[in-house]
Amino acid sequence: MRIVSFVKPGSTFADGQRIVTQLPGKHWRRDGRDYAYVPNRYIIGEKRRNYTLAFTLSLAAGRTRIAHFYPYLFGDLLQDLRRLRPLADCLSIKDLGPTPGGRPLLMLNITDFVQSPTEPRPHIVVSARVHPGETPASFMMRGVLELLMADSPEAQDLRRRFDFIVLPMLNPDGVATGNGRANSAGLDLNRYWEKPPAGSEVAVARSLLNELCSSSSGVLAYLDFHAHSRRHGAFTLSNPKSQLMPDLLAELGDPVFDRKQCVFSYNKSKRGSARCVVWKDLGVKHSHTIEASYAALPCKTRSITPRDLAE
Question: Any idea what the Cα angle at residue 75 is, between residues 236 and 228, rounded to 5°?
Answer without folding.
Answer: 20
